[in-house]
Amino acid sequence: MQTTHIRHYLHTIITGLSAVLLTACFPDTHYVTYQHVDADGWERDSVLEYTIPHVDDDGTYMSEIDLRTTRAYPFTRLYLIVSQTIYPAGRTITDTLNLEISDNQGRQKGRGFTLLQQERPFRFLQLHQGDSLVIHVSHHMRRRLLSGISDVGYRLVHND
């Protein structure tokens, strides 16, 4: 039990430091955060939620999903449902993402050794100063419990 707490604590620290470093590497990044997926697998009905309190400037922003997978991920593709609600307007935009995780020969894509990281930009958003966002992400795979996904991140990059 103690070992599990230590692993979770270390994983939280590493994830936090990664987010800080990635923000430093991408100077136009307005927001980035990751959520850890249960080591036993990601349930189909488990929805990850990200909340962006407000944007500072009017402009065009790029939404991006960042994904960390292990070599245990059993499929070549991952289908995600991403819903972004912009407040105060209450407008919701839903996208189905078809992410290629490995090629036809089974070679996984991404950077890294133990965890392979991929960044996938998927939608431009026109936002106004003070707008906030609530993002929901779930997988849309036939298998109810999906193994091999470690973390799912959301990044909002200011394009102007």
Descriptors:
160 residues, four-stranded antiparallel beta sheet, alpha+beta, globular, single chain
Overall pLDDT score: 84
Helical fraction: 10-25%
In total, the number of strands is 10
SSE pattern, N- to C-terminal? HEEEEEEEEEE
- Please, how many helices? 1
Rounded to the nearest angstrom, the radius of gyration is 16 Å
**Structural shape:** globular
Secondary-structure blueprint of this entry?
Blueprint: H1 2-25, E1 29-36, E2 42-43, E3 48-52, E4 59-69, E5 77-87, E6 91-100, E7 116-127, E8 132-139, E9 145-146, E10 149-158
What is this structure, in a nutshell?
By secondary structure, the protein is of the alpha+beta class. It has one helix at about 1-25; strands at about 30-35, 40-45, 50, 60-70, 75-85, 90-100, 115-125, 130-140, 145, 150-160.
